[in-house]
Specification:
15% strand; 8-stranded parallel sheet; TIM Barrel
Length: 267
């Protein structure tokens, strides 16, 4: 089974913020941790705190294209954002784009319509788009409905930052409602951090099973968000591989890697 981590922040500059680890995850650290956890490939998502995050991720992917691919960041407030997105696929190893809509300041481009010209470009060019948008699922629904060819990935299952235990899944009915839109996918990244109980996080089985029942195994991707994990990387892998009894081997292979490869056209 090919294990593809759908989200890891790597960086060489800047100081990490919030709940992320302070020691940088650079190229050498990433390769070592992948080997220890049994991860074959990683989608690099540059963090905001590294001013050269996109460039560093591309550098890693260029050095080891069999291991790394990039879902880059694009500032929608830039005047040339639409032009840059139209040329997105010209960048070697950059296969998708991510927008963060998880703070009042980061929400402004969405509220001011600055993202509106970008959705049809991503739709036309078949660029997968990940959105970190807790509390914004009605907006995600509207975007996905207006652009049925746009493949939208809802990051972190739309769990609010810092939410743990039952509070982490209070929004679950709204998330499950998005499953009726076939172009919406969900990213289950670092979900062990949402549990009060230790590995293997038995409390997460019920909400995860509901998510898989709604979206199907073909529209869920696994990821770690390694820099903020509070448990070992290997446990993040093992949780899905061995402790979700409702997932058969075929479905597990899709969730743990094949879905993300298909979304990014990463052969």
């Amino acid at each position: 089974m090919l294990i593809v981590d759908a989200q890891v922040h790597t960086w060489s500059e800047g100081v990490s913020t919030g709940h992320h680890r302070r020691d940088p995850i650079d190229h050498g650290v990433m390769v070592r941790e992948m080997a220890e956890a049994g991860v074959d490939r990683v989608v690099l998502v540059p963090p905001l705190w590294d001013p050269n995050g996109n460039a560093y991720a591309v550098q890693m992917a260029r050095a080891e294209p069999e291991k790394f691919s990039v879902m880059g960041l694009l500032d929608p407030a830039r005047g040339d954002a639409a032009e840059r997105l139209a040329r997105w696929r010209d960048q070697p190893h950059v296969r998708g784009v991510r927008f963060l809509l998880n703070t009042p300041e980061r929400l402004q481009p969405l509220q001011e319509g600055l993202l509106d010209p970008l959705w049809p470009i991503a739709e036309a060019q078949n660029i997968a788009v990940a959105v970190l948008a807790p509390g914004q699922l009605p907006a995600v629904r509207a975007i996905a409905s207006r652009h049925p060819g746009l493949r939208l990935i809802v990051d972190h299952l739309a769990v609010p930052r810092g939410a743990v235990g039952p509070r982490a899944f209070e929004h679950l009915p709204a998330l499950l409602g998005l499953a009726e839109l076939p172009n919406v996918y969900v990213k289950a990244a670092g979900v062990g951090d949402y549990a009060f109980d230790p590995f293997p996080f038995a409390s997460l089985q019920e909400p995860l099973e509901r998510i898989f029942d709604a979206f199907g195994a073909g529209r869920v991707v696994w990821g770690s968000d390694l820099s903020r994990l509070h448990h070992p990387y290997a446990q993040c892998v093992e949780h899905f591989k061995h402790h979700l009894p409702f997932l058969g081997q075929h479905d597990l292979a899709r969730v743990m890697g094949l879905n993300m490869l298909q979304l990014l056209n990463w052969r």
